[in-house]
Amino acid sequence: MLQAFLYFCYMEILDILIIGAGPIGLNCALEAKKNNLNYLIIEKGTIVNSLYNYPLYMKFFSTADKLEIAEIPFISAAPKPGRQEALEYYQGIARQKNININLYEKVLKVSKTGKIFEIETSKSKYTAKNVIISTGFYDIPNLMNIPGEDLPKVKHYYTEPYPYAKQKIVVIGSSNSSVDAALETYRKGTEVTMVIRNSEISNNVKYWVKPDIENRIAEGSIKAHFNAELIEIKEKTVIFKDKEGEIQEIENDFVLAMTGYLPDFYFLKNSGIDLQGECLNPIYNHETMETNIENLYLAGVVCGGKDTHLWFIENSRIHAEMIIRNILST
Please, what's the b/e burial string for 257-276 (b: 16 or more CB within 10 A of its CB; e: otherwise)? Predict the structure, then answer.
């Protein structure tokens, strides 16, 4: 007990510990550095880890200027940059600005004793006066909870079309990720069937892509079942309910379950953050980003709970400035 107390006393107390090295976490670090605050980012993967795991040929909805952080220009060959350009931009900033980051280290627990936070990770322990959670939402798939979802042929993450050439696949949903997967795999010789709960392709699909998918469906190159629901996945087939309520079973090699992703609600709740409503919205002050726990802040997509379309890079870049301003004022 005495040894643990002495260890705690001699630990460096950071001004800020930031969880997550995505674009918004990096922006928080840059804002802290600009104001001479002692900070550290802890990241369970690589720099901008979620972006690294995006589909290889993904194009952003936003233009390059809307993805910039800390007023550092983002130079792109096209109006809407791709994954590789974004990786170069954000990882380049981390190198050039010499941001303090510990990579491949997972935060396990955040607790508070008095006014000091204790952060336990997979590699060490830290103490800090303030903690910023900027963990995004790409780690936990939004499961369908149907029989067979745990089969190896079911993929909740899509990276490139080549593994699916000359295969029969089912793509679930009509979001941007679903549509991109359907079009890319179709163009590599894949037999694509889309199973979509709604009556049409989502209006959130990128405007330059939506006509393409609608035309491929209209001509029959890609099969689409609207107002339909997948109910079971088997080794060689899938079973779904069509818009008439009839049960259909079709041959299938792979299922791309592009059903979205969720923040780590268990981690948020275990850190003491209150969640409310069906969307499990975290409680925070919209002017300071401070949660119901004093000096514990949220930044970026994680603020939206299950509504992962509410916050994105473009409109959450301001969170860093809001948080640091509040820290400096207290």
Answer: bbbbbbbbbebbeebebeee
The Cβ of residue 122 has, within 10 Å, a number of other Cβ atoms equal to 11
Backbone torsions φ then ψ of 256, nearest 5 degrees: -100, 100
- SS in 3 state form for 128-187? EEEEEECCCCCCEECCCCCCCCCCCCEECCCCCCHHHCCCEEEEECCCHHHHHHHHHHHC
Alpha-carbon span 198 to 22, nearest angstrom: 32
Q: Read off the pLDDT of residues 73-120 as tens digits, 9 standing for 90 and up.
A: 999 999 899 999 999 999 999 999 999 999 999 999 999 999 999 999
The pLDDT tens digits for 303-314 are 999 998 889 999
Q: What does residue 281 show for φ and ψ, rounded to 5 degrees? A: -70, 125
Rounded to two decimals, the pTM is 0.92
- A 10 A CB-CB count for 185 gives 25
| Strand, helix or coil for residue 318 | helix
| Burial zone of 13 (CB within 10 Å; 0-12 exposed, 13-18 middle, 19+ buried) | middle
Token pair in block for residue 126 = 């830290």
